[in-house]
Amino acid sequence: MATETTGDAAAAAPGMPQLDFSTFPNQIAWLVITLIVIYVVLSRIALPRIGSVLAERSGTITNDIAAAEELKQKAVEAEDAYNKALADARVEAAKIVADTKADIQKDLDKAIAEADAEIAARAAEGEKVIASIRDSAEKDAATVAKDIAKDIVAAVAPSKIDAKTVTAAVTAKMKG
Amino acid sequence: MAEKEDGGLVFHPMDQFIVKPLFGDGPVGVLTITNSTLWMALTVLAVIALLVLGTRSRAIVPTRSQSVAELAYGFVYQMVEDITGKDGVKYFPYIMTLFMFILFSNYLGLLPMAFTPTSHIAVTAVLAVAVFLAVTVLGFVKNGASFLSLFWVSSAPLALRPILALIEVISYFVRPVSHSIRLAGNMMAGHAVIKVFAAFAAVVAISPLSILAITAMYGLEMLVAGIQAYVFTILTCVYLKDALHPHH
Prior knowledge:
The complex is a heterodimer of chains A (176) and B (248).
Chain A: H1 24-156, H2 163-175
Helix pairs in contact in A: 1-2
Chain B: E1 2-5, E2 8-11, H1 35-53, H2 64-84, H3 92-108, H4 121-143, H5 161-200, H6 207-244
Antiparallel strand pairs in B: 1-2
Helix pairs in contact in B: 1-3, 2-3, 2-6, 3-6, 4-5, 4-6, 5-6
């Protein structure tokens, strides 16, 4: 510790001003006042205020996180709903495609059946015509055969065999 | 302060600690307004400026000053809660008062021409004794006679316990002494050393070195000012924990 060598006012203090007991009551008194003032200000105003701000902030943050969580949940739900709608639409579309196909098939089947029926009818008609043509042909052939047989018989043995016998004989021959 | 007088250096490194009346030259009475009073008042104003004015907007997204105030609050609150537990939190305002007073007194004292109230043993002794008495009374009020088990180390071998108890008692009563001298000593030493270097700055040949040394010491003192406030506060918390939970 430096000691004072000059004679000015400061030099009157002892080597360590900290040990100048004459100033102790003053320092202690003002210290107590200072501490009381700080304590009152802190406990009445500053600390409750800061504490409430911190609590409010943590509350806000908690709420915001909860809100964000909720929104996220909603987003997930919306996505699910969208996917479901998409899937439903796909199913619906598939069903419509199937129905349409079935309708078309039905129409097609009906058309084919009608066409078949038409074809069958036409074929039957044709066959009938062919049959009638064949019948008439046979009949013509028989008439021609009888006529020729009658002529031949008349030429070979006139008046000995009548026409009825010849016709019967021709018919029997044609069947055999 | 150092002046060149008659070609020789004169050191007055301790003059900065002299408590003198701010107005007039009379003796220092109990309520005389002294330089110490002035800087205690400035400390109060600084505390109010930070913790009251700084937080007046009560913003959810804090301003810069509010951030610092919240930082100080959170720092001390966390310390009290971690060391003393949940039941020590109700003493938080007292500990915060101590911390803010010491912190601002230390830092304001680092301003040029400033006076540092906490460099005086009278001030730190009052703080330390107040903590000591409060903690002792609280210990007996909360725990009754079982507070004395603080001195009875039940985990030690029986033969050692009386000796340990003696040591514990001595260390308990030395607490306020070390508690107060640590703070005042640190503050005084740093300021005195800076003043000594400042005296050398008057000598042209070594003044660059001296100024460099002042700068370095100042940086160190910035650190010490914060650390000593922290140490004083954390020891207060530890003593409080002993009072609330005396059983080892």
